Amino acid sequence: MLEHGGRLRRASRQYGVPVGRWLDLSTGLNPIPWQGAQPPLSSWARLPEDEDELAQAAQSYYAAPLALPIAGSQAAIQTLPHLRPPGRVGLLATSYAEHQYHWRRAGHRISLLTAAECAPASEELDALVLVNPNNPTGERFAPEELAAWHARLQARGGWLVVDEAFVDTSPELSLASLCDRDGLIVLRSLGKFFGLAGARVGFALAAAPLLHALAERLGPWSLAGPSRFVATQALRDRSWQEATRRRLTADGQRLNRLLAHCGLPPSGGTALFQWVLTPQATWIHDRLARNGILVRLFEAPASLRFGLPHAAEDWERLEAGLRALRLAQPAARTSPSLAESAP
Question: What is the pTM of this model?
Answer without folding.
Answer: 0.92
